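Morning run. Coffee first, then this:
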Amino acid sequence: MPEKSNTAIEDLLRLPEVAEIVKDHNPALVARQQDQPPICAVFDQPYTVLEADGRYRFEIDRETRRRLPGIIGGRVQVVRGRDALAPGQRENYARRRNIGIVFSGGPAPGGHNVIAGLYDAAKRANPDSRVYGFLMGPDGIIENQSVELTAEIVDAHRNLGGFGMIKTGRTKIDTPEKMQLSRETCKLLGLDALVIVGGDDSNTNAAFLAQEMLEDGVQVIGVPKTIDGDVQVKDADGRVLCAVSFGFHSAARGFAQNVSNLCTDCNSDMKYWHICKVMGRSASHLALEVALQTHANMTLIGEDLADYVDTERLEKARRRGDVDFNAYGMTLRHLSRVVCDGIVRRAAVGKNCGVLVIPEGVLEFINEIQVFIVKLNTIIGEYNHTHDRDFHADHPLLENKLEYLRRLARRSREQGAIAIWNERDDDLFNDLPEFFQDGLLTERDSHGNFQFSQVKTERVIMGLVRDYLDILWEEGRYKMGIESSYYRQVMQKGGLDADAYAPVLFRNPGAHYLLMKADIISEKTLGQVLADAGMQDGEEEVPAAVLKIYKKSVPKFKTQVHFYGYDGRGSHPTRFDCKYTYNLGLTVFSLIANGVTGQMAAIRNLELDFERWEPVGIPIAPLMHLEERKGKLALVLEKSLVDIHSNAFQVVKAFREQWLAAEPGPDHYRSPAPIHLSGATEEDRPLTLFLNALGQGDT
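And here it is:
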């Protein structure tokens, strides 16, 4: 084909149709930006007030009370709408304010709408109020890098995913120097309030900033954000104040769409096991939601594994008059056996394929791995503190790290004292594959958390699975089921009597799916079985038809590995997250306008219909407790794990067998709808929230 001239290309580029096609924003995106989320009824009125709700009780940590005395007495505040206020209240509510907002940690769909809701509420109360966005996360506060947000900037990001408006970062304001620089920034900008949008660590940071800035008169408000879904708030009596953080629903739907596509591929090609690792750090909420959205054949839930009890081991120990403490909690080896069982059972009915969902933090719930993580976290944290240097910088190679551990083990033996790392630990650790040792010794994140996303979790599990499948094949327990009609067709074409051969070849000759006998594991053993049954002479070649059936019975275990994380957190928000975050932004302004600090903006009743949603402020300090971080105890917000007694988990557990589909017939895959903002088919909340609300009121 002849090349176009430069003139022809220039003419082409001037066409309006080309300009329309290559625009940054497509029509659907423009419609998304222009969509106005519904607002809670209290925000329909011109003013809001706060009403303390004394029903909620918190068990307060003594260390929290000592370190956060100025905000420890905060109570849950319910936002109420008002048509009018007393003159003094009205002037205070509508006074000009300077408000700063910052994103902290990884992106989560919906963050832009928090800014939009705050911006709209602040400008409605007083058009002269200013909202500043700190750039690149908390570094923007420390270094006084900000931008005043305008209607043009905010409107360009409404209902869109990511944190592109002001970017984000993972720096913590956790030293006196950083705290002082932050205070200076707030003074220079004349801030009345600072809003921190982040996860558990970021909201912990918000509490300390609120305490530090009390004397400066700067209010600090937190907003719960994380796709992991592990920022959930209940009081000491189990009453739910915040059912889930924003971004969870959108990320889960994004992951589910991808996993569903693999289910479709699996059902079409019948060739691969798709191993899908999904983000979730320490909790399995995302994996649970993906299971409900897709009906993947197997989904591992870490919290369920931690609750496992090996009754067979307990019984053996009881007969010995002993107690086997290793019977409590799932071991890595037993987990691989559970996965193998599903693979073998599906293969037996001709399904040499499937979809397995693994939460990235699943290893944290495995006994021996958890012990290693805790010990190594402490060793690394202690090294950094004692030497005032970085462990990973001083020990860049795996061999350097292993030698350091060996020295600790030798020292524990020579000194004869109880040590955190002893020779038994060293021996067990050296039994692990090298890549897994390297993974367990990987550098911790800025908060001291073990980075499960950096560990090839699926490789660890599937390596053990492959090894055990080989054993099961050699024992004759891992076979591909042969459909009886196919068997008869092949035998008839080969001129052989299918009925005569069936009892010799198969352990279940009358079944719909036929399984080769356990001792037929090679062409040689196949010939021997036929000879022993008098079907042929020992020197004869196995008939081609029989050989074809045998080869069909040999499973070829092939996998495709996928990781879903960054794609989901970069998704556009669902309708649920759009309206959730916009109303969070409105709630933030209500808390600021009514003078509170050290509070987390939240929406109560997220698990119920939108008409039941109730904006609230939750005091952050009473939620904090001591937890090990970087080898030391630190005050943090507790992560919320999957409740294995919840309706959502119990439903998934009840359907495990059906979704495994280890029987003749179709799989039971579910196809979730794509993310959009309108239409009767769009979900109004996460499926886990919907199920957990059943039996607790109207849904």
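The mean pLDDT is 93. Good start to the day.
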